[in-house]
Amino acid sequence: MANGFTGLSIALSGLFANQRAMHVTSHNVSNVNTPGYSRQRMDMQAFRPDQLPGDMGTLGLGTDVTAVKQIRDQYLDYKYRTEYAKLSEWDAKYEILQNIESILNEPSDSGVGKLMDDFFSSLQEVSKNAESISVRTLLRERAIALVKGIGGMASSFKKLQYDVNTEFKVAVEDINGYARQIADLNKVIFESELSGGHANDARDQRNLVLDKLSEYMTVNSYEDKEGRFHVTVGGHILASHYRADSFVCTVRNKRKNPDDVDGLEDVRWADGSPLKSGSGNLKGLIDIRDNIDGEDKGIPYYLNKLNIFMDKLVSEMNRIHKQGYDLNGNKGGNFFTIDNMSSDEFDDYILNRGLDGKPAVDITHIVDEKVQEVMDQYETLQSDEKIRLKNQTIAEVIGDYLDQNPQYKSKSVHYADGRYLVVDRLSAQDINVATDLIEVDKIATSDSQLEIPRNGDNMLAMADIRHNVKLYDWGSPDDYVKSLISNLGVYGNAAKNLKTNQTLLVDNIKVEREAIMGVSLDEEMSNVIRFQHAYSANARMVNTIDEMIDLIVNRLGTVGR
Fold first, then answer.
1. Are 30 and 43 in contact (CB under 8 A)?
2. Dihedrals φ, ψ of 423, to 5°?
3. H/E segment holding residue 147
4. 3-class SS at 101?
5. Residue 478 included in any domain
6. According to the model, what pLDDT value does residue 1 have?
7. How many CB atoms lie within 10 A of CB 388?
8. What is the pLDDT of residue 453?
């Protein structure tokens, strides 16, 4: 029931409420640049009024502070994290695709195209000056430049794959760290709110950790009726109340792709369950590190294409070189080998250890029969046309055979000891010019033993490989290189566009989010003035009521004494 001190109590409630509101405003201003901070607002409501007797109504008893709340929109938080995960995925892919473009370095004066131009140009020069030692030496040097240049690209691809794997492991460690942080913050928040308050600053910290976590994977979070907070990834709980799960990386026992570097790791949940990360930086790294086919092509795809290019080129070069004669009248050997082998050592390797460390599979009868069937239909062709047709047919028959036999999907066919043999595909980084050819007179330039040394027609046959449209699925060597570069350009441009579009979307959501949770200095300064004036007014009320009480207590009834 109201008494003489009710007015003082009402004024004091307003005084204290506006003082606390000033504290909240000050806290907002001081955290205007704090990452993840969401502005806070103090909610006030009128005290339950006092019922006056009769029908006089009620008498207000001042104001009450009900809560200090943070201003956030959970839907925008969810939307931001979902779209940010997609942005991070394409950002990771685009960055590594740029590295792949730098490795291939096309078009340029040091790319595959330039190396091929120099090499095939030297073959043409040798065909015109077969007896010239200097021209032969230049051919050998340009062949070395070709295999070293492309081999260096293959090595760079492997190093890039290893670097991506390292980045992948760091990402997994970061994720585990964020999971532990969320569990720790869950404990702080839960214990702080047992008495019914709101741990706003700790909640901001947890939301910031969730934002960082969403860079790596698609995350979902919710708070149950008991106030316990949970985070899930792909339906699996990452953090639940005080407990945090984790991911473990394990080294692969078996390569996923034939040309992968050793030591690549896979990630699983600690209990052994497979990870379904959705979008995010982690998925981008996994795709670009592991994918050899499909829409999301990665490093293995481009390394595999480079190895296919060099393997078939070397196989055909060696086969034709063996048809010719060197300056000493001897049959030519292998022009290219691997691991600094001589021609004979390479043939021995192909024959006895070429297929998974075991003897090669002989398909000579299949190739010869099909080639003969075709050649019988074109007996009237000129000699040089017959040679070109035969070379194209051999390449086509070999390609068809490998396509029709899935067990040889990643294998190749090389010519050794007069036979066509199924063997392991050569790796571009292992290829070198045969050590025998340090003596350049062993380059088999002539297609006739009787026309040595001036005949250079075998070099012309080797140079004509550049125009063999049946050598690769994508056509001639030039067509193959152009298709590979074009493929990379298209995919890289698509990744760039997706990243750009996703960046715009994330930025728009971020603006909406900041408009709600961000601190506006203009708005806070307006609140400062509003609360200051209210505080001053309530202080004046306290003074006025104090004077009234003083009058009643100390001066009322003293007149006439």
1. no
2. -140, 175
3. helix 133-192
4. helix
5. no
6. 47
7. 17
8. 84
What amino acid occupies position 346? F
Q: Decide if 386 is inside a domain.
A: no
* Count of residues making up the chain: 561
Structural domain tally of the chain?
A: 1
Tell me the C-alpha to C-alpha distance, in Å, between residue 112 and each of 123, 138, 305, 485.
17, 18, 13, 10
Phi and psi, residue 72, nearest 5°:
-140, 160
Determine the Cα–Cα distance for residues 95 and 169; give it in Å rounded to an integer.
18
Q: What is the pLDDT of residue 561?
A: 53
- For residue 209, being part of any structural domain is answered with no
In the chain, the N- to C-terminal Cα span, in Å, equals 34
The Cα–Cα gap between 350 and 391 comes to: 21
Separation in Å, CA 234 to CA 182, 275, 277, 279: 18, 7, 6, 10
Domain hosting 38: range is 6-71+524-555
Residue 445 CB coordination number (10 Å): 32
User: What is d(CA 168, CA 183) in angstroms, rounded to the nearest whole number?
Assistant: 23
CA distance 459 to 539: 104
Q: Rounded to an integer, what distance in angstroms lies between the CA atom of residue 433 and that of residue 151?
A: 12
**pLDDT value of position 559:** 58
* Cβ–Cβ < 8 Å for 60, 10: yes
Report the distance separating Cα 144 and Cα 553, nearest Å. 111
Rounded mean pLDDT for each run of 10 residues along the chain, 561 residues in total: 70 88 92 93 85 76 86 94 96 95 86 93 94 95 96 96 96 96 95 86 95 95 92 93 94 91 94 90 95 88 95 96 93 96 96 94 94 84 82 92 91 94 95 95 92 89 93 93 93 94 96 93 92 89 83 70 53
Instruction: Tell me the two tokens of residue 490.
Output: 């298209």
Tokens 């063999």, residue located: 468
**For residue 538, how far is the Cα from the chain centroid?**
61
Q: What is the DSSP track for 204-266?
A: HHHHHHHHHHTTTS--EEEE-TTS-EEEEETTEEEEETTEE--EEEEE-SS-SSTTPPTT-EE
In a domain, 193, yes or no: no
**What is the distance between the alpha carbons of residues 561 and 551, in angstroms, rounded to a whole number?**
16
Task: Please choose, from the candidates 239, 245, 216, 233, the residue with its C-alpha nearest in 3D space to the C-alpha of residue 276.
Answer: 233
| d(C-alpha 283, C-alpha 291), whole Å | 11
- Residue 348's alpha-carbon distances to 310, 351, 352, in angstroms, are 20, 5, 6
Where are the alpha helices (H) located in 354-476, listed in sequence order?
364-376, 383-404, 457-463
State pTM to two decimals: 0.88
